[in-house]
Amino acid sequence: MRCIGQNATGAPDRLRSVRSGEVIREARLQAGLSQDRLAQRIGVPRQSIARWERGAVEPGFDTVRRLLRSCGFDVSLVRYEPDEVAEARLSDKLELTPQERVLALLGEPGNND
Amino acid sequence: MARPRSQARFDPYAILAALEQERVTYVLIGAFARVIVGADEITHGVDLTPSPREENLRRLDLALDAINARRPDGSEPNVQTNDYTRDPVVELRTDHGEVKVVPFPEGTRGYDDLRRAAERQPLGHGFRPSVASPGDLARMLSALGREQDIPNLMMMRRLIELEHGLYRGMSIER
Fold first, then answer.
1. Nearest to A82, CA basis, from A93, A90, A71, A92
2. Is B150 contained in some domain?
3. Are residue A21 and residue A49 in the same domain, yes or no?
4. Domains in chain A: how many in total?
5. B26 - beta bridge partners?
6. N or C: which end of chain A has fewer CB within 10 A?
7. Which residue range is the domain that position A104 belongs to?
């Protein structure tokens, strides 16, 4: 399974903003659907799909979600509250080598105490 | 006093050594893999997705036997004959910590899917196991759809962002 907008390493395919039309098109193509078929699935004219994909009209969030679900994908909003302490710990871990990360794990309180 | 098996001292190197000894082909997944790629988590076990080839599963059974792996009910595992439709995760306790064998993790098509983006990570003592990519590790957490995994999923996504930020910084310096 490939997440839309990510390459095989999970990184964004392109480091730029992505229009909803591009996401809809990508989901439709990955699902192997024609614009006609997707339009039938959600009960709108094919032209609506084409306009959304071109970016001529920006669909609302609920419409995007309905379109993606029809293609077998989903989109959801998850509240994200930055935690500065966790962020700092994560940055510190990234500075370590894989070996150092494992040794740090084995030295954590609660692990092997 | 010897620890009960459920509290065996976690020694991932001993588990990896047993796998290495039998030349098992696998990709590390789960919390231990996330720690290796940089996540800030605590775990007491090793989760892996083995190559599904029959010979490889036979070797995995030998490796698990060498570390005295048992199911929670005390029975011996047999990853070759396990019914994965009924029992998709083989949970084991060993002399060196917990081991989970997961041939088809949620959101993936198994070993052949994961190995493409997996990387060998140097863990010292000569071990360079194949570890699932951060993207695949995040995808597996996401596919599980468990509320308790959301913080770890957010952390993995942030880790991927930070990793790419670091990479971009390194590129500029060159």
1. A90
2. no
3. yes
4. 2
5. B50
6. C
7. 80-113
Q: Is B90 a member of any domain? A: yes
By C-alpha distance, the chain B residue nearest A75 is: B142
pLDDT digit string, tens, across residues B79-91 = 999 888 888 999 9
In angstroms, the Cα distances linking B86 to A59, A65, A105 are 42, 32, 33
Give B 91-130 residues with CB within 8 A of chain A.
107-109, 113, 116-117, 121-124
Domain containing residue B79: CATH number: 3.30.460.40
* The one-letter amino acid at B23: R
Residue-wise pLDDT for B92-119, tens only, equals 999 999 999 999 999 899 999 999 999 9
Residues A95 and A105 occupy one common structural domain: yes
SS (H, E, C) B122-174: CCECCECCEECCHHHHHHHHHHHCCHHHHHHHHHHHHHHHHHHHHHHHHHHHC
How many Å apart are CA B88 and CA B75, to the nearest integer?
17
Which residues is B101 bridged to in the sheet?
B48, B90
ipTM of predicted complex: 0.86
| Segment holding A40, helix H or strand E | helix A35-42
Token digits of residue B26: 């696998």
For the whole prediction, is pTM greater than 0.80?
Answer: no
Kindly list the residues from chain B whose CB atom is less than 8 angstroms away from the CB atom of residue A102: 12, 35-36, 123-124
Longest dimension (CA), chain B: 56
